[in-house]
Design a protein that fits this description.
The chain is an alpha/beta fold. The protein is built from twelve helices and 19 strands. The chain has a nine-stranded mixed sheet with strand order 11-14-17-16-15-18-10-1-19. Strands 2-3-4-5-6-7-8-9 form an eight-stranded parallel barrel, surrounded by six helices. It starts with a helix and ends with a strand. The structure holds pyridoxal-5'-phosphate (PLP). The active site is at residues 44, 280. One of its GO terms (molecular function) is alanine racemase activity. Belongs to the alanine racemase family.
Length: 390
């Protein structure tokens, strides 16, 4: 079977349709929220499961001038000619481990994040080998307590970066940080992190750092906290049309539209008697004679097993619920006596305007966040792009 046949037949089972017009419109809506700032489209984790290169191109088409990824491999892939990302688009990556591809990153003109002196040393060595200055963004831990340089260590990191800059080995192109609770309106850590960020930026600038960009705003901050926008905003989830948290609002509240629709074709529809156990462990037992529909997607495809007996699916205009356990490759819905034809469409989630559930509905059913729902859709599910051109 050749590639094309494999792709087409895979789509018969299930598909994640990605509406690139929605991505473009979302990026434009985010730019309107932050009119004074540049926009970095965050396309880590394969564009939150939507496809990194396609979403990067769409975002750039809608005015994003930066792209952001976690790993250097993700960033380098966006510099490959096949990705179709213009060479003048800045690409930044922030999750490094010792021995990482610093030299390749420098040669690919990436912006690399540095949180500690080990990384500064590796950058300096790689810049010597590459024979050109690295673009380095210093990351401050203003309170998230994850990556970034602690305030007590900041003076040392800034001094080391300035020495390397004087040697011609790097340029400090950015000063940046990340919020812990920007999706919780009024959380006291927001103001505390912002104040700390201002102090750490001011210190670095007093010492002589001249960054091109200062940035701290993720999606919730881009949407709701204009005082955090600085020179650049870094939305991820919102560009895919998903709200960072139901607490701050729905996508529609912000003029956003979910870009991914996940659907499958029923693999079997059959009559079963009452009292019939369904799926592993028999956690669902049919309350009476009914029909069951077999949905050919499972936890190997990213359907959370925690959504067993809870996840919603739209079949022929009606919401049905996962009956019993989600298995590796399939799950069952009780169709209540309805008899859709085999192959009938089962929509797990989408924008919601055809009456289908949303990724947020699945997140609530599984006790997680919508980020995890869209990001984990597996590689066995083909991405089908629509509205690739404006
Ligand atoms: C993932 C990520 C973002 C984007 O976060 P969203 O909440 O999806 O907008 C921004 N900055 C960093 C450092 C990240 O890791």
């Amino acid at each position: 079977m050749n590639e094309t046949v494999a792709q087409r037949t895979a789509q018969l089972r299930a598909r994640a349709e990605i509406d690139l017009a929605a991505v473009r419109a979302n990026v434009r809506a985010l730019r309107e929220r932050a009119p004074g700032a540049a926009l970095m489209a965050v396309v880590k984790a394969d564009g939150y499961g939507h496809g990194a290169a396609a979403c990067a191109r769409a975002a750039v088409g809608a005015g994003a001038t930066w792209l952001g990824t976690a790993t250097p491999q993700e960033a380098l892939a966006l510099r490959a000619p096949g990705a179709g990302v213009p060479a003048d688009v800045r690409i930044m990556c922030w999750l490094w481990t010792p021995g990482g591809p610093w030299r390749e990153a420098i040669e690919a003109d990436l912006d690399v994040s540095v949180s500690g002196t080990w990384a500064l040393e590796e950058v300096r060595r790689a810049a010597r080998l590459a024979g050109r200055a690295a673009r380095v963004q210093l990351k401050a831990d203003t309170g998230l307590g994850r990556g970034g340089c602690q305030p007590d260590d900041w003076a040392g990191l800034v001094a080391g970066a300035l020495r390397a800059e004087a040697e011609g080995l790097l340029r400090v192109t950015g000063l940046w940080s990340h919020f812990a609770c920007a999706d919780e309106p009024g959380h006291p850590s927001i103001a505390a992190q912002l104040a700390r960020f201002r102090e750490m930026v001011a210190y670095a600038e007093e010492q002589g750092v001249r960054p091109e960009v200062r940035h701290i705003a993720n999606s919730p901050a881009t949407l709701t906290l204009p005082e955090t926008h600085f020179d650049l905003v870094r939305p991820g989830i919102a560009m895919y049309g998903v709200s960072p948290s139901p607490e701050i609002g729905t996508p529609a509240d912000f003029g956003l539209r979910p870009a991914m629709t996940l659907s499958a074709s029923l693999a079997l529809v059959k009559h079963v008697p009452g009292g019939h156990g369904v799926s592993y462990g028999h956690h669902y037992v049919t309350p009476g004679a009914t029909t069951l529909g077999l949905v050919p997607l499972g936890y190997a495809d990213g359907i959370p097993r925690h959504a067993s007996s809870a996840g919603p699916v739209l079949v022929e205009g009606k919401w049905r619920t996962v009956a019993g356990r989600v298995a590796m490759d399939q799950f069952v819905v009780d169709l209540g006596g309805d008899e859709p034809a085999p192959g009938a469409e089962a929509v797990l989630f989408g924008p919601g305007d055809r009456g289908e559930p949303t990724a947020e509905d699945w997140a609530q059913a599984a006790g997680t966040i919508a980020y995890e729902i869209v990001t984990r859709i597996g590689t066995r599910v083909p991405r089908v792009y629509v509205n690739a051109t404006a």
